[in-house]
Specification:
Distance between the termini: 14 Å
Number of domains: 1
Number of helices: 10
CATH topology: Cytosolic phospholipase A2 catalytic domain
CATH architecture: 3-Layer(aba) Sandwich
Shape: globular
Number of strands: 11
Helix content: 25-40%
Order of helices and strands: EHEHHHEHEEEHEEEHEHEHH
Largest sheet: 9 strands, mixed
Mean pLDDT: 86
Low-confidence stretches: 282-288
CATH superfamily: Cytosolic phospholipase A2 catalytic domain
Strand content: 15-25%
CATH class: Alpha Beta
Length: 288
């Protein structure tokens, strides 16, 4: 079997399905040698590259809750009371940074033993910024590549959903969610060295019944539509595309973490025969 790489998409809480996917692959002895992720996928990719196995990450699920969204109420009040005060996002992202720093013992990207890449977007240049544990085997056109950064900072930058989270300022860049520009980084995981790739997409922009009567509801829907349009072209690059059918509107529904894991596991089990066939044929040089 050739070296397998996996690209994990963003999608908020729906990204917990990635844990089920990885757990299913591990149980079937399909080793993932390369991994890349965006937003929620970046959290999973970083922890996996650090050394956490899927079963270990599943045990961390109780820490993935609404308390991670640390709303910046003092800034709201100052912006309301003072002219000229501006609010760049509803939440600061510091609690997520602390969680990743604790679980990775303040590791830097270059400390990670597995080839991994996490994607963010630079608002200034409209270019992808890729945080990676090692140099790419082939260049990524138009991307800025950074290796010397704490894992926690890279994850928070990749997860900085516009409006919801404040942008991350780093070395003159203004960074937001990688999903703005590359929500399922298949090309990136190939550039790391993967010979065959699995793409995991977790969110669809299916029709919903909603009045969209809040800022958050509008932001969530706009992100869903944007990612849905963008990722269709990207998925054509993958050898296998996994699309677990998570419940709709799970972006910040922290009550759905376990059900999303189960959904991912069921889906990979259903597709396992196909996955094995593609990987084994690739190893034998048989055209797909």
């Amino acid at each position: 079997m050739k070296d397998v790489g996996i690209a994990l998409s963003g999608g908020g809480v729906a990204g917990c399905a990635h844990l089920g996917i990885l757990y299913g692959l591990e149980k079937e002895n399909i080793p993932v040698r390369y991994i890349a992720g965006t937003s929620a996928g970046a959290i999973v990719a970083a922890l996996y590259a650090y050394g956490y196995r899927p079963r270990h990450m599943i045990k961390l699920l109780p820490l993935i809750n609404k308390e991670l969204v640390d709303y910046d109420y003092p800034s709201f009040v100052r912006a309301f009371l003072r002219r000229g005060m501006r609010v760049q996002g509803l939440a600061k992202g510091e609690r997520l940074r602390y969680l990743i720093a604790e679980t990775t013992r303040n590791a830097r990207m270059t400390d990670l033993p597995l080839p991994v890449a996490l994607i963010a977007t630079d608002l200034k240049t409209a270019r992808p910024v890729i945080f990676t544990s090692r140099p790419f085997l082939s260049p990524i056109p138009g991307a800025d590549v950074i290796t010397d950064i704490p894992v926690a900072d890279a994850v928070v930058a990749s997860c900085a959903i516009p409006v919801l989270f404040q942008p991350i300022h780093y070395q003159g860049r203004i960074l937001v969610d990688g999903g703005v520009i590359d929500n399922c980084p298949i090309g990136v995981v190939k550039a790391l060295g993967a010979e065959k790739t699995i793409a995991v997409r977790t969110r669809e922009a299916a029709p919903v019944e909603s009045s969209f009567d809040s800022l958050l509801a509008i932001v969530k829907r706009v992100m869903s539509i944007t990612l849905n349009i963008q990722v269709k072209q990207q998925l054509k690059e993958a050898d296998i595309v996994l699309q677990p059918e998570v419940a709709p509107d799970t972006l910040l529904d922290f009550t759905q973490t376990v059900s999303c894991v189960k959904c991912g596991y069921r889906h990979v089990r259903e597709r396992m025969e196909e996955i094995r066939r593609v990987m084994e044929n690739a190893a034998e040089g048989v055209p797909l």
